[in-house]
Structures are given as structure tokens and as C-alpha cells.
Design a protein that fits this description.
The structure is a homodimer of 446-residue chains.
Chain A lengths: L3 H11 L7 H20 L4 H13 L5 E2 L6 E2 L1 H12 L15 H16 L3 H22 L2 H4 L4 H17 L4 H14 L11 H21 L15 H4 L6 H5 L23 H14 L6 E8 L4 H4 L7 H4 L3 H9 L12 H5 L1 H7 L2 E5 L6 E8 L4 E7 L7 H20 L1 H12 L8 H4 L6
Parallel strand pairs in A: 3-4
Antiparallel strand pairs in A: 1-2, 3-5, 5-6
Helix pairs in contact in A: 1-6, 1-8, 1-9, 2-4, 2-6, 2-19, 2-20, 3-4, 4-5, 4-10, 5-6, 5-8, 5-10, 6-8, 8-9, 8-10, 9-10, 13-16, 16-18, 19-20
């Protein structure tokens, strides 16, 4: 019998802010910045409004803020609504170790509980990193079979990550975290079959909700199995044939999974990020103009054919999953970081369609996060660049600058420039916040 | 592609009280009577108190009653707390088609939502039967592989049953019920690994909570897959290799699954019910006294060896899973319907231990709900009886009398005789209730 449940619980209950490397803490702040951006940008989304209406119907004690609306409710409701909203645009960060979206699954629960109990920035950052690392270890344990057989890691494993994070925030001891994992493990759910519907972002909200409740129940003495990740009929083995203990114990690059967190800078499918980056690099390097482009070739893994290869997209949603169109937009100077760029109008804009017709997709043997783009000019010149979206940023200054730009683009229209800048400033000194309420109460639309 | 999701949704959205046979309606009333009994009897259980404390912490709008305590909260909270409490004693009814506990998984959600919206008895009964039938059809579809691979049907399929029932109560059309099944299917969870901990009854509460929310979300327009039971990566196929469409469409005995509902009359493992019934039959028929018994043989399936064959139990919990001791109690005239009989004191009572020492268990080839008991007397006489706990009562008058006795034993100490009798009377005319509030507001401990 392995003892992964016990070890994860032990690590989570013991970790202190000082144990976490400065780089890992900085990336954790980036996760907070990015999560608030994508959540605030979506707060008027129809899905977010459905959940907000439900929360309003319950009229629970107002201790945690629903981002954007500013409506205050119970921590469990805020975790559910904010968690769902954070994934509504599918513009939130990702982890290859989890094979899903750790911040969306964990952070809203931590922030909601922190606001309810008046926790400090230090406590939140520590709890979030504890949950993030746990989720990535469990993801590594169960990848790829869990996902392959139909489960959505963000939803299922995300609930366990949220349970660990909220347990750390509440100061639970190792035995209590084990039980929280037991409760979250037996309540965790979410199927990939729901992709393409509102139920996919709902998964993230439900993971936050389930994890937060599991942490609370365990604190109150509710019993569950304490070997949920190890037992023959526990969560890990019932829902996955994979059980890679060595991977769950392996030391990630830099010592922290969170250092390998991947942010989205284009408001479309993650598999289109590398082609866009390669295309933009050529444009920036060569200084050519769109009109001079004769022919474009995108070389990527054939895996992408079923993911994001809509050949002749007709809508804003479809161009989010069209290699040809998204790259055409990048070549024509359209801002692919702006969610408004992925509009029905841009799907039909004549110059973009004309450019798209010059783009061909070619399958090569490669990881599905790799792309090579080749541009042939009117004058016969051949320009080429590659990109790999599986590689986290090595330059955290650059990452912060890009995320700050993304934040401004998404949040300035919601909060106004002044308060948006205030949020950025608050997050930059997150560990020194005495009470995170100051941050969350500021995340309310005009 | 099958269309079971669509057919279940269609049937549920169309069924009216008049479509349901009088016998099926009567059994549905029995389910309500029995559910209230086992829920009220457990309301001071530590698990129930944990969930009550959480509900109190949320201070939600008081529209639905937590049984026993009388605390009023949101429908989703009441469904969660009452659903969990109803399964806390493991004394609630069961269905072999679902392979689980349909009333505990479905009825608390229906009652909580009904109280919140002021629904009639007719609406509640119709909704409950719609959900019950749906859950049994889905159980038939996925049995036995779903359970065998580690999932707890009460929890997983129960959530879909609750979603269907609440959808019917809210008057959802077929398309909306399909989406409610899609949402519940992707949020449904629960592992058998949790058996023996408080997380097992929590499963029932979570199923009610999830199903109720799925029905509400679907009403508000939240989208999900509409082929959750049919698609290759939907709920049914991801979580079970079995996919017995013929069974899901088969007409159950009497036309309604609910007619085959099985009630517990002994406060112990269901697999001990048949041995107790057989032993009691011999005692009643022959009129012998315990002292005259020389030797007892219980013949049952060897499957029970790992379920309820504690040889020398030392505690109240252990005698709930001891064939020898429970039958010894029945032979000595102890009331096995009384939850107080399964006490630590009775585990050690000398006359019971002495009788237990005269009882032997013998394995025979049989269904695990069948038992033969053979008693040899001091005078050499040999008495024998058989019982099968898989057979629902053919005599509904007798069933009602037994359930009324059980109700009185469990509920009189909680509500007092006067109000307990009032609840029984109210349920006997359930279909004519204009508003179920009158029933639920009366289920409050002195």
C-alpha cells in the first residue's frame, strides 16, 4: 500500500510561506492576477448570471464577494459562482501536470474562504500553492488514463486540490487534510463529454464548491477514508488505470509545479497559441506587411485536427478553434489577446478571410503544443519560426508585463482604469496584505 | 445511438398522477412515511449535526425545513442535510433495480423544493415517482458493472433521479429534463470506498443537492449535453462497461419499479433480514421458547461471509453485521426493528451470547437475499423456514401496518405520540394536500 494521501496531506499541512521559493510565490501572484482578470471579464456572461441569480435566491449570510457584481453571499456560493465564471471564457491558465486548469479549480474557493474568515495574503498564497502542488501531483499520478477515459481533470482532481488548499487556509492538521481528501475524492465529478456547453465551466465552480465543503466537513469531524489516493477502490484507482506513484513523487522543474504554470495570452484554444506566437515572431522580426504574404504553412501535430482545425469558420466561437483563421488574424495585426477580437464580424471580415485562404495546415510528427510557421512572400523570400506553448516563461519580468497588459485589456472596461490599477498594485504586494478583503471588495464593476 | 436520455426525459415531463397506478401511489406514500421515520430518528446523529451547523452558518433564506431541528434554510441546504440524515442509520428503503437507496437520494430534494415553492401533495407524489422510475431505469442500464467498479449507485445515479424528480416538480419540459440529466450526469459522484464512514450517508445528501441544483440550472437555461445516458463518453458509458438498454426499457413487475421497493424492518444489514424473518416465523408458528432451542443453522449465500458474518461481535455496530447475533436476538424476543436494540449492551448480554453460541452459519448456493433457518429443539424436533428479502410485499395493507409500527417506534420519541400520529394521518391523504408545508412544518422535535 502506498501512502501518497498521507504524504500529500502532511506536506500541505506543514508548508509555510518561507518554504516556497520567491519565484514560485511570484508565479502564484501571477495566477491571482490572471484569475481575477478572466473572472471579471466574464461576470456578465449568461452562465455567470444564472449562478448569480441562484446565489441571490439563497440570500445567504454576506461574507464573500461574487466578483464583478459585488453581491456578497456565503463562501461556498462565492466559490461556486466565481469558480465557474473564471473558466467561462476558457482564457484561464493551465498546467500540463494536472492536465487542466488549476487556478480556476482552486483559487476562487481559497479567496472566498479567506474573505469569510479575514485571512491574510500570506495565508492565501501559502494555501493556494499547497493546493496547486497537490493537484499537480494527483494529476501526474493519474495521467493520461483518467482524462482519456472521459473525466475532466479540472473538475475531478480540481476538487481535491481545492480541498487541500482550503484545509491549509483553515490550518487543518495532516489527519484532517487526509479526511478532506477522502471527502473530496468521493464527491469529485466532471466529464469531458460536457465540453462545448456551459457545464464545462460549471465543473470548475463545482470543484471549488466541493473542495471548500470537504475541507469544512473534515474540520467539523466528518469521517471518510484516509487512503483515498492509495486504496484499490479509492478515487485514483476507480477512475484511472494509471497510478504513476513515481511521477507523483518526482520533483518538478524548479522544485514547484507552479513554476511550470502556463498562461494564455490569446483568447482562443491553447493549441493555437504556438502557431500565433510563431507567426507574430516572423512579422516582428522581418517587418513584412500582410499584403506581401503569398502563402502560409502551419505545421502542427495531427492531434489538432479534431481540436482546432475548423477550416472555414463562420462565427466568433468557431474562429477560437480555427488554426487558419486565428493565424490570419495575427498576420493582419488583429489583437488576439482581446476577447472582442473573436467576434462573428471578424469571422466574416473580407481581408481576414482572404488571408485565411492563403493559409494551409500541414501535419508533422510533434508534440501538440509545438508549431512551425512558414511564410512565403511575393518576392520569393521564405521566413520561418517555431514556438512551443508547453514551455513556461523563463523570464518572470516579461511574464508579469504580459499578464499586466492582459489584465488591463480585460479589466479596465469593467472596473475603470483607476481601480484596475489599484488591483494590480495590491496583488504586487499580496504577501504583505493583512486581510484579503481589501482586494476582493475592490473587484466590483462600476 | 440510443435515445434513452430523451425517452426518460419525455416520460418524466409527461407523467401525471392519474397515470400512476393506485398501488404505485400507495407505495410512494409508504416511501414518504418511511423516509420521514428514518430521517427524524437520526436528526441528532453527529453527522446530521455537522451538516446542520454548516447550514446555520450560511443563514440562507428560510424556505425549507431541516427535519427534526426545524431550522429553515434554502432548499438546496435542506436537501443536502435531510438527504444525508435519511441515510445515516442505513435503515432506509432499497431498490434492486437501482441497486441502492432511491428514497434517500431523491425524496428529500423533492420535499425541500416543494416546501420552498408551496407545491401540492399531488405534485410531490408525481415528481417522486418520476424520479424513482428514472433512477431504476438508469440503474438497470448500468448494473452490475457500475457498482462493481467502485461507484455507489445511491450517490451517482441518485443524483440523476433527483434531477428528474425536481425537474418534474418544477414543470420542466422534456428538453429541459434532458439538460438537467446532462448537468446531473456530469456532476454525479460517490465511491463505495467510503462505506463504513460518514461519507456514505453524505453521498445521499450530495445526490439530492446535486440533482436539485441540476434541475434549477437547467430551468435557468444552463446548457449541457442532452445525450448523457447514450453518448460514448457520457455518464453511463464512462462509468460502466454495462449498457443494458433492453433492461432500461423493460417493464418492471406491476408496471412500476416503485412497486418492487424493499423496506427495512430490522435496524441492521439488509442481508440479515431474511434470516431474522425465517427465525421469527418458526418462533411464531411453533410457539417454542428460547430455552428449548438446542441448535440453530442459518443457510445463506457465501457472499454474505464478507458482508455480515461477524462471528463474535463486541459492539452495537458489529451486531448490525452479525448473522449469528442478530438471529439470536430475534430468537430471544429482542425487537430488531428498534434501533436501540443494536447497542453495545446487547452485544454482551449473557443470554444473547449464549444463544449466539448455539447458532451456526452454513453456506449454500442461493441468492444473497435468501435464507433458510433450521432449529433443533431439546426434544429432537426439527423446525425449518425460509425467507427471501428480495420479494416486495404482496400485501400493501400488511406493509402499511408494519411501516406504521416502525414509524411509531422511531418517531414517537422525537415528535411525541400526538404529532407523530398526525404525520401518519397527513401522509395517508398525501395526494389531497394543497401544500406540503403542513407536513414538513410538523416534523420538528419537541
Amino acid at each position: 500500500m502506498s501512502r501518497l494521501t498521507a504524504d500529500i496531506a502532511h506536506d500541505a499541512s506543514k508548508v509555510m510561506l518561507d518554504d516556497i521559493s520567491p519565484e514560485a510565490r511570484r508565479v502564484a501572484r501571477h495566477c491571482i492576477l490572471d484569475l481575477l482578470a478572466v473572472t471579471l471579464a466574464a461576470w456578465k456572461d449568461p452562465l455567470a448570471q444564472i449562478l448569480l441569480d441562484e446565489a441571490k435566491d439563497e440570500q445567504s449570510r454576506p461574507v464573500s464577494t461574487i466578483l464583478g457584481s459585488g453581491y456578497r453571499t456565503s463562501a461556498s456560493q462565492a466559490a461556486l459562482v466565481n469558480g465557474t465564471t473564471s473558466h467561462a471564457l476558457d482564457y484561464d491558465d493551465a498546467s500540463l501536470a494536472l492536465n487542466g486548469h488549476p487556478s480556476a479549480a482552486i483559487l476562487p474557493a481559497v479567496l472566498a474562504e479567506a474573505e469569510a474568515i479575514g485571512a491574510s495574503g500570506e495565508a492565501v498564497l501559502t494555501a493556494f500553492v499547497a493546493g496547486y502542488e497537490a493537484a499537480c501531483r494527483i494529476g501526474s499520478l493519474m495521467h493520461p488514463d483518467h482524462y482519456r477515459r472521459g473525466f475532466h481533470n479540472t473538475a475531478t482532481i480540481g476538487a481535491l486540490g481545492a480541498a487541500v488548499a482550503c484545509s491549509r487556509l483553515l490550518g487543518s492538521d495532516a489527519a484532517t487534510v487526509r479526511r478532506a481528501l477522502g471527502i473530496a475524492g468521493t464527491l469529485a465529478a466532471g466529464l469531458k463529454h460536457s465540453f462545448g456547453t456551459m457545464s464545462k465551466p460549471l465543473h470548475a465552480g463545482w470543484a471549488n464548491h466541493t473542495g471548500l465543503m470537504a475541507a469544512r466537513y473534515a474540520r467539523r469531524g466528518l469521517t471518510s477514508r484516509e487512503d483515498m489516493l492509495d486504496a484499490e477502490y479509492g478515487f485514483a484507482r476507480t477512475m484511472s488505470r494509471d497510478h504513476h506513484l513515481n511521477r507523483a513523487y518526482a520533483r518538478p522543474n524548479g522544485g514547484w509545479h507552479i513554476l511550470n504554470n502556463l498562461f494564455k495570452y490569446h483568447a482562443c484554444c491553447y493549441n493555437i497559441h504556438a502557431p500565433i506566437d510563431a507567426a507574430r515572431e516572423i512579422m516582428a522580426r522581418s517587418g513584412i506587411v500582410a499584403d506581401a504574404i503569398k502563402q502560409v504553412t502551419i505545421q502542427v501535430s495531427p492531434v489538432l485536427d479534431t481540436v482546432c482545425n475548423v477550416q472555414d469558420p463562420q462565427s466568433g466561437l468557431e474562429i477560437k478553434f480555427s488554426l487558419r483563421h486565428a493565424v490570419a488574424m495575427a498576420l493582419c495585426g488583429v489583437d488576439t489577446a482581446d476577447i472582442a477580437s473573436f467576434s462573428d464580424a471578424n469571422a466574416l471580415r473580407p481581408d481576414l478571410v482572404a488571408m485565411r485562404d492563403r493559409v494551409a495546415v500541414e501535419w508533422i510528427e510533434a508534440e501538440d503544443t509545438f508549431a512551425r510557421v512558414i511564410i512565403e512572400n511575393d518576392d520569393g523570400a521564405r521566413l520561418e519560426a517555431t514556438a512551443d506553448s508547453s514551455i513556461p516563461s523563463a523570464n518572470l519580468d516579461q511574464q508579469e508585463a504580459k499578464l499586466t497588459t492582459k489584465f488591463a485589456a480585460l479589466v479596465n472596461p469593467i472596473l475603470g482604469v483607476g481601480r484596475a490599477n489599484q488591483v494590480i498594485a495590491t496583488i504586487s504586494e499580496f504577501e504583505s496584505l493583512e486581510d484579503v478583503n481589501v482586494l476582493l471588495l475592490g473587484c466590483v464593476s462600476d
